[in-house]
Write a structure and sequence with these properties.
The protein has 20 helices and 33 strands. The protein is α/β, with parallel strands linked by helices. Helix 1 packs across helix 2. The longest helix has 20 residues. The chain is elongated and about 95 Å long. The chain starts with 26 loop residues before the first strand and ends in a 32-residue tail after the last strand.
């Protein structure tokens, strides 16, 4: 009861397949052997620390399981002969019992400390080995499941041999190391490591559940175990979580072979120069269209040039910022190109966001000018003018009312030498949610965008054009807005507010549409609309990004439009739109998730542990991204930049950097990456990145709120929503708090529900008990009530 109190219910090893609802006992085995030199060094290590070989090997096995699962608390079963107390009742024959040994690896536990802990636990367990395991289960009462065995799912069995007897040694008559390599058809546990000392070396094998693991996975883990044991005998003073797991060959494969993505691209050019070259090749082809106008390549380029020369006359220089507060229209694309041609970086200011938030972005980015038009509400424009007035006299330029000012400007491309622009200058600054309550501006350079566009133009080949249905403040828009312009194709801009309805109508047309960049939530909503009407779709390519893509959404679209290309694209704003992609095959198969795939050209992906060392294939690690797309950092946030943008120790270039994403993933056996979520309180909702801390900080600004916690809940499958929990000091209405947030946060960051609590639930340790926070009821949604998606 004492030793097993609070032990983990399940050792969550990274499986190749989802665990069946009922345990499947089909099994197989692979052999394992340590050479004579390592076997002798393990014996010497055991002698130095007063442990048996059983204890030393159990310690190594526990470290491996801990590192594979990411759990610092591991319970391992081990069989014992149970002939220790003949004075109680003399026994004749062979009676096997099973002990549950708990190993805890906390903090900076060293090899020496771990060996002593394992020795103590093994000796303690031996004192109670006559208590049948079934009674232990009855006493401890762990949560029971048909999917796995209780208390432990992994076994370690040490069989008596020529040496190494002692506590934990079990003599099984007739057992030989070679027998463990024979074909097995059953497996009582997820993994069972069986070892013995043959006299010259330690040998045996692993039985494994074939419902969970592939043989290649198990062989790889045994290689890691051998490497780990080598590290243990070399230095018993080092922390166990720093013991090497990877062989030299595996390290080469994960760090270098997987990242062999070098490809030629025009790194000497800037983004607008790619489009200028296409305009010269196809001047008369349509380049962009909205509901009011269509511009050919030559006209688009000429309009952008006039505006760029005007911005230059106002003193715009490289790395300056120019705000764009524009709805989707041909003017928006003209402005994007003009700002870059003038040498500046564009800063999207979404007119759908609250005026207060746009003012904050202006104060932070300090644009030298803001481009807008009369479609934008006067309240928004006034708020921007007031914010700009605090930092000088930056003009607010109306692209319609002020157009006469640059009507006579030249139409030729601004010369790069005259502008002073280089590929390492900024192309755009895009703001994302910040955990401190303050949005952070990501600074993206031309060379990173050029690499992505050059790769995407060849991989996606959107010769039928693209539909733009997302905001310029969403970095995914870069794909649909700019990639077609490198192919001479036409970009179709949907009217503001017509994101789903407009796409629905386009997809039903006989001509359909080419590339569609869309979030999984929108793709699913679109598919449900079409399926409800029994309609078919005519898309050329869906590039899906922003959050995890569900297999059910893929299956829906395979029914609606068999043969449609679906590409799952992953990439944070800090590494230019998308840096890992996976084209979903047809059929998709029975996978529990859709992989995010492999790195694109000139991109490096590392899965690292908390010490920034690579993890073995199949093991969960944090995603670090290096290569051409890594951003310069966060605008005016040097401390945060230093925290997230780190030197890349694996690139072979002292100037190379990598971005720490906070995302978790693992490398599958087929070489694709599987995205597994976040390691912090950042969430993705309908493709938008949200730092829950920013919402909590805004709630805390209300005088009546004592504490605030925000969660992303999914109480019904597929219905994820933000829910705020507030402990308040006075009577307060949930809708009033939502209105308070709506003054400073965009709609997608305002929680759907606000739950008012007299106090927050706490654990026994006085920490917030998130699991005890209740599901929202009808009163939590305020006066608006529930609104269907």
């Amino acid at each position: 009861q004492q030793t097993l109190a609070g032990a983990p219910v399940l050792l969550e090893l990274p499986t190749d397949r989802a665990r069946p609802a009922q345990q499947d006992h089909a099994g197989a085995a692979v052999g394992f052997e340590l050479d004579a030199g390592l076997s002798e060094r393990l014996k010497a290590l055991s002698q130095r620390h007063g442990t048996t070989l059983f204890m030393t090997l159990l310690a190594g096995w526990a470290v491996l399981l801990s590192r594979l699962s990411g759990q610092n608390d591991v319970v391992i079963g081990t069989p014992v002969a149970n002939r220790q107390r003949p004075e109680v009742q003399p026994l004749i024959g062979f009676f096997v019992n099973t002990l549950a040994l708990r190993v805890q690896l906390t903090g900076e536990t060293t090899v020496a400390q771990l060996l002593q802990q394992v020795k103590e636990r093994a000796l303690q367990a031996q004192q109670h080995q006559d208590l049948p395991f079934e009674q232990v289960v009855e006493i401890v009462k762990p949560p029971r499941s048909l999917a796995h065995s209780p208390l432990f799912q992994v076994l370690f069995s040490w069989h008596g041999g020529a040496a190494g007897q002692g506590p934990g040694a079990l003599e099984l008559p007739g057992l030989r190391s070679t027998s463990l390599q024979a074909s097995h058809t059953t497996a009582q546990f997820d993994l069972a490591l069986n070892l013995m000392d043959t006299g010259e070396r330690i040998a045996g094998g692993v039985e494994y559940a074939t419902a969970l693991f592939d043989p290649a996975t198990v062989r790889g883990w045994l290689d890691s175990l051998r490497t780990l044991l080598e590290a243990m005998v070399c230095d018993d003073a080092q922390p166990v979580d720093r013991l090497a797991l990877l062989t030299a060959a595996e390290r080469q494969r994960l760090l270098h072979d997987f990242n062999a993505t070098e490809a030629a691209y025009p790194s000497h050019l800037c983004v607008h120069e790619l489009i200028e070259a296409q305009a010269a090749r196809t001047p008369d082809l349509p380049a962009v269209a909205d509901d009011e106008a269509t511009l050919g390549y030559a006209e688009l380029n000429a309009r952008a040039n006039r505006l760029a020369h005007h911005l230059r006359s106002l003193g715009v220089r490289p790395d300056d910022r120019v705000g764009l507060c524009l709805e989707r229209s041909t003017d928006m694309l003209v402005a994007v190109l003009a700002v870059m041609k003038a040498g500046a970086a564009y800063v999207p200011l979404d007119p759908a966001h609250p005026a207060q938030r746009l003012a904050e972005l202006c104060e932070d980015s300090e644009p030298v000018a803001v481009l807008t038009h009369n479609r934008v509400a006067e309240q928004i424009r006034t708020s921007i003018r007031l914010a700009l007035a605090m930092h000088g006299e930056a003009p607010v330029i109306d692209l319609q009312a002020d157009a006469r000012r640059w009507k006579r400007q030249p139409t030729h491309d601004p010369a790069r030498a005259e502008v002073g622009l280089m590929p390492n200058h900024l192309a755009y600054v895009l703001y994302t949610s910040g955990s401190t309550g303050r949005p952070k501006g990501v600074m993206i350079e031309h060379r990173g965008v050029v690499n992505y566009l050059w790769w995407a133009a060849r991989s996606y080949a959107p010769d039928d054009g693209a539909i733009v249905s997302s905001s310029l403040s969403f970095d995914a828009t870069v794909t649909s807005l700019l990639v077609p312009l490198l192919r001479g194709a036409c970009v179709q801009l949907l009217p503001q507010g017509q994101e789903i309805e407009g796409l629905d109508a386009r997809l039903r047309r006989p001509g359909g549409c080419g590339l569609v960049k869309i979030t999984p939530a929108h793709l699913d909503a679109l598919g449900q609309r079409l399926a409800a009407d029994g309609a078919s779709a005519r898309a050329g390519l869906f590039v899906v990004g922003g959050e995890a893509l569900a297999p059910s959404t893929v299956a829906l679209w395979r029914r609606l439009q068999p043969g449609v290309r679906i590409v799952n694209e992953y990439g944070p704003t800090e590494t230019v739109v998308g840096c890992v992609v996976h084209e979903v095959p047809e059929p998709q198969g029975t996978a529990r998730s859709v992989p995010i795939g492999r790195p694109i050209a000139n991109t490096r992906i590392y899965l690292l542990d908390r010490h920034r060392q690579p993890v073995p294939a199949g093991v969960i690690g944090e995603v670090y991204i290096g290569g051409a797309g890594v951003a310069r950092g966060y605008l005016k946030r040097p401390e945060l930049t230093a925290e997230r943008f780190l030197p890349d120790p694996f690139a072979g270039d002292t100037q190379a950097r990598m971005y720490r994403t906070g995302d978790l993933a693992r490398l599958l056996s087929d070489g694709n990456l599987d995205y597994l979520g976040r390691n912090d309180f950042q969430v993705k909702l309908r493709g938008m990145r949200i730092e829950l801390g920013e919402i909590e900080a805004r709630l805390a600004q209300h005088a009546a709120v004592r504490e605030a916690v925000v969660l992303a809940r999914e109480d019904q499958p597929g219905d994820k929503r933000l829910v705020a929990y507030c402990s308040v000091s006075s009577e307060l209405d949930a809708e009033l708090l939502r209105q308070h947030l709506a003054q400073s946060l965009p709609d997608y960051m305002v929680p759907a529900a606000v739950v008012l609590l007299p106090e927050m639930p706490l654990t026994a340790n006085g920490k917030l008990d998130r699991a005890a926070l209740p599901a929202p009821d009808a009163t939590s949604f305020g006066h608006a009530g529930f609104e269907a998606p």
